[in-house]
Amino acid sequence: MNLNRLFSSLLALLIIASLMVSCKKGGDNPNAVVAKTVLVYMEANNDLRYDALNSVNRMEKGATGINGTLLVYIKTSSTKSYLLKIKPDADLNRLVSDTVKIYDSTLASDPQTIKQVTQYVQTEFPAQSYGLILWSHATSWAPPVSKVKVQSFGEDSGKQMDVIDLKNALPDNLDFIIFDACSMGGVEICYEFKDKAKYIIASPAETLSESFPYQNITPLLFGGNESLAAVAKGYYDYYNAYTDDRCSATVSLIKTSELPALAAEMKNLLSEKKPGDQFTRSSVQRLDYTKNFPVPNYDFGDFLNQNFAAGSLTTINAQLSKTIIYKAATPNFIGVPISQFSGLTTYIPYTGDGNLAYYKKLQWYSASGLSRLFGM
Predict the structure, then answer these.
(1) Residues 6 or more apart from 242 whose CB is under 8 A from it?
(2) What domains are defined for the chain?
(3) What's the predicted TM-score (pTM) here?
(4) Is 24 within 8 Å of 116 (Cβ atoms)?
(5) Integer Cα distance of 230 and 238 in angstroms
(6) What digits encode the pLDDT tens for the residues 157-173?
(7) Measured distance CA(96)–CA(180) in Å, rounded
(8) What is the pLDDT of residue 139?
(9) Cα(180)–Cα(228) distance, integer angstroms
């Protein structure tokens, strides 16, 4: 066994043991209303468990002086999950945060679990505003399957969560949602979650398992909405500083209130098309880099450029600029060039598409006018 991996395994066991003995029920003052409560929901009962524990340690390192409450729901084994209240600690070899609740026999990928956890958090740790970070595996809007190596969102004991079910389980009073997970920066995902949060930060391509640099960005999570661009930039800057294949990152900050106008502009464009018309797909920039990724993710802007006359794109490009507050991409992703990057991905349906039955369930399908081409 690799010695670094062995050390990580032993460290993880020590950390998990510390969770069991440092239980502290509820908040110090459950009725106190703070400026912001941020919940990180970590589905890590999978091959990301060590990365999850490392992320929690980095949150502790970055938590000094935050203006609010940072909570982490974490599941790294099949038996128990924990709700932690993050405490500042600069030592990355230990975990000192308080365990405020222990859950037995819960499936993190069950929408009812995340619904119960978010409701508990907002009841027991009330705040003027709320943020949510969803941390796990993900594969955009792809339907969940029974035996998985990748998933729609999350994985617990091989079980996945459908993104529509996830959306329905979440509260609708969030300032932001950050997807610390692969390929959730698609227009379909952002539109599906537009009524849940004012802003979304996500990666249109995959994310490396090293995750967001919480040691740097944690204080920014508790600033105003204007600090979210700095969160996204902090993610990009962290990976862009690498000089090897880890220099691989895409990230976007989406203002969700602008998404209906983007859908309306898309619908206007599609009025030029007739049912049965096929889109150009083969030459459009792909932003999925995992082998056998379940659904292709195409750059939204490149899709527009290759399928519509340049003169007809003025208004939708202007709306795209209003929708995407911040975007950045490294020149390559794990060695593959990124030549086109608009800040969003999209799926490109076609006649006979086996994914179409599920794709039709997504709100973007109807709102964007694709339903006129491929049927309801």
Answers:
(1) none
(2) 3-255 (3.40.50.11970), 260-374 (no CATH)
(3) 0.91
(4) no
(5) 12
(6) 566 788 999 999 999 99
(7) 23
(8) 82
(9) 14
Structure tokens at 351: 């006649």
Ranges under pLDDT 50 in the chain: 1-14, 17, 20-21, 25, 146-151
Q: Which of 166, 155, 161, 118 is nearest to 143 (CA)?
A: 161
The number of residues making up the chain comes to: 376
What pLDDT shows up at residue 31?
57
C-alpha 254/C-alpha 319 separation (Å) is: 12
The dihedral formed by the CA atoms of 146, 152, 158 and 161, expressed in degrees to the nearest 10: -90
Residue 287: how many other CB atoms lie within 10 Å? 31
Q: Concatenated DSSP letters for 228-291?
A: HHHHHHHHHHHHHT-SSTT---EEEEEEGGGHHHHHHHHHHHHTTS-TT-----TTSPB---ST
- The Cα–Cα gap between 204 and 289 comes to 11
Gap between the terminal Cα atoms of the chain: 53
Which DSSP state fits 331? S
3-state helix, strand, coil in the chain (%, to 5): 35, 25, 40
Beta strands (DSSP E) in the chain are: 34-43, 69-75, 80-85, 98-104, 127-135, 153-156, 159-161, 174-180, 197-202, 250-255, 298-299, 324-329, 332-333, 336-337, 345-346
